[in-house]
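Kindly go through the following sequence and its backbone structure tokens. Advise at your convenience whether the structure tokens fit the sequence:

___
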Amino acid sequence: MSRNVVISGGGTGIGLAAARAFADGGDRVLLLGRREEVLRRAQVPGALTYTADVSDVAGVRGVARFVADELGAVDVLIHSAGGSGRLEPRVEREDPLDLVADNWLVNFRINTLTAVLLTEALKDRLAEPGGRVLFLSSIAAYRGSGSGAYAASKAALHPYAHDLARQLGPRGITVNLVAPGYVEDTDFFGDGMDDARRARLIAETSTGRPGTPGDIAATLHWLASPSAAHITSQIIQVNGGAERGH
């Protein structure tokens, strides 16, 4: 039976790969994103699109109204919106503390607040039993991210997801997280990846290769399947063993 799947950040990278995986399985997909032109370019058979900033309360309320009108119930909710802040508008600051504040606020807005607001807005529309809520965490939540801001914003999703799993479990809804490592073919690194850094990140894996959006999408698809019905409040590492180190 076809399911209704809502994916934030569904126009690129992991979100787009997940959308295609669910659509290929016969599910109806709604892609959410801030950039209308990106959503238009996404090639997902039969997908609906809705342009909104899901870190903004008004934007999320618009999503909730659209879901109510077009879908009704939500079987699978996937939070793929986020990033390191590299795609956000640059703000000139002279004070180093202002720069620190901006970095932390941006990361928590795009990685944590987006997921929390969208979940809370759609929580009562999750199918029961059988609903699935899936968050994208990161290897950085375990190992740090340089400045700390991105890692902290992803790690903040963990206790929220665990609390949500306990809250929604009696309704037959599971909540899990997937923590990718280095994944190629996304916009995450912007222009910040060079050959030396890429080689170092790949060398940290036990599999000797970078991750792909398809690797993460396949894990999300499995967690949303009946086979994973008794798995909840878990963080699934998909990083080729890099989190364990060498």
